[in-house]
Design a protein that fits this description.
3 helices; 447 residues; 33% strand; single chain; mainly beta
Length: 447
């Protein structure tokens, strides 16, 4: 689930707030960020992923291990699509980042009936004795017709990635406009990209899949082939699956349904800053040499160095995020938090003027229950730094969602859903799905 425990560091966030003030956004109406969360589905443990089927139904992956089918009204079918719990490691109820992490449809699902699932399997044979689990990406098939029931025998394992710790899995996947499968993988867990790995960490290590965005072609090869233009396709300098690197814990990856079809990744920070990146092929996003726009010293993680690295070990430039926000606000209204939750660029029709804005969230601004937030980022008219703000949510001008914000979903129409949990970990039945809609003031202004 979420990437780390409540941080205890304190620092001055003035420089970060200078970024948050940002450059004026491009063409958003005054009532754009007056939004509402409309109840859509409930009764889950910790909903992690929502995928839209061609007929309007949805697949919902619950972290506890169950894959559900929802009808157009949000009602879950009587029988689950599949129960993955027997394939998974046991989860910690108080807090865990493992579990059933994502599900996406093949781009030609109507023909192939294939879905791709990420789950935390027990440590595979050959993994180090003191490691924790094996992050697994698998393909499954659904039968044709109205019945949504996974054929267990159809499982084709695409990737197995051994992990030293239970946290920093990433585990988010998406198909790009090129038809290839992109996989976000965390740095392995623990803190500072240290422990059970080389001193240099995993983010900058091109000989591991950990701390990377991977790209593979699942339509060719066994179990996949390497796209010929992957940065290290020949395998000489790095793992051929690597598309981008220097990533800490990509808790949300998504392609814009419109515009330039850019790949957005929300990367959870260590103790000081959270960030959002637009991923470029071969890009090095800095971890653990940098945290967001700032230098990072793994031996002093709660202090920002006066100067930071600007190049990787190969001499390549370290790429900046499009935005950051701090863990400690300068005032109660400032954007801040403890752990970012990635979202989507809005491409729906129901919310006037929100087109092109990146809607994402904060797991919990203070780390306490009920303090998850919704945030909206706007592309600047010039420059590369996006502005970010809290929208009005259900009449409250603080973006507050009233629960832990675990994940986001987007349907085929470009509308956005927010997935929340009432508890810190995968326990209880407080997991809910909400649909983002215009707030009452926005509706009134549109009449």
């Amino acid at each position: 689930m979420k990437p780390k425990f409540i941080p205890t560091s304190t620092f001055a966030a003035i420089s970060a707030l200078g970024l948050l003030a940002g450059t004026a956004s491009t063409s958003f109406a005054a009532d754009t960020f007056n939004l509402a969360l409309k109840p859509f589905a409930e009764g889950f443990v910790s909903p992690m992923s929502l995928s839209s089927l061609p007929d309007g139904r949805m697949l919902l992956a619950d972290q506890a291990g169950v894959l559900y089918a929802l009808d157009k009204s949000g009602k879950a079918a009587a029988e689950p699509v599949f129960d993955f719990t027997a394939k998974m490691v046991p989860l910690k109820k108080d807090f865990d980042e493992r579990g059933l992490l994502d599900v996406v449809l093949h781009p030609k699902f109507a023909t192939t009936r294939k879905i791709y699932v990420v789950y935390s399997a027990p440590k595979q044979a050959g993994a180090p004795d003191d490691w924790d689990n094996t992050l697994t990406v698998s393909e499954f098939k659904l039968p044709k017709g109205d019945t949504l029931k996974v054929d267990e025998k159809s499982e084709r394992v695409i990737l197995r990635i051994d992990k030293p710790f239970f946290n920093h899995n990433g585990g988010r996947i998406a198909f790009g406009p090129d038809g290839f499968l992109y996989v976000g993988v965390g740095d392995g867990g623990a803190g500072n990209d240290q422990g059970k790995r080389p001193e240099t960490g995993n983010g900058q290590n091109l000989q591991t899949h950990l701390g990377k965005i991977l790209r593979v072609n699942v339509d060719k090869g066994n179990p996949y082939s390497i796209p010929s233009d992957n940065p290290f396709a020949n395998g000489k300098e790095g793992k051929p699956e690597i598309y981008a690197y220097g990533i800490r814990n990509p808790w949300g990856i998504s392609f814009d349904q419109g515009g330039k079809r850019e790949l957005f990744v929300s990367d959870v920070g260590q103790d000081l800053f959270e960030e959002v990146d637009i991923i470029q092929k071969g890009g090095n996003y800095g971890w653990n040499l940098r945290e967001a726009f700032h230098g990072f010293d793994p031996k002093k993680p709660k202090t920002t160095p006066e100067t930071g690295a600007t190049k990787g070990v190969r001499g390549e430039p370290l790429l900046d995020p499009i935005l950051e926000y701090p863990h400690r606000p300068a005032n109660s209204a400032a954007v801040a938090g403890t752990s970012i939750t990635g979202g989507y660029v809005y491409r729906g029709k129901s919310i006037k003027g929100l087109q092109g804005a990146y809607v994402f969230g904060e797991w919990s601004r203070t780390g306490g229950p009920g303090d998850g937030r919704i945030m909206v980022a706007s592309r600047p008219a010039s420059g590369s730094k996006w502005s970010v703000e809290y929208p009005v949510i259900n009449g409250a001008a603080n973006g507050k969602a009233g629960a832990y914000v675990i994940a986001f979903g987007q349907d085929s129409e470009g509308e956005i859903y927010i997935l929340t949990n009432g508890a810190r970990g995968p326990a209880g039945k407080g997991g809910r799905v909400w649909k983002l809609a215009p707030g009452e003031a926005a509706v009134a202004a549109a009449k």
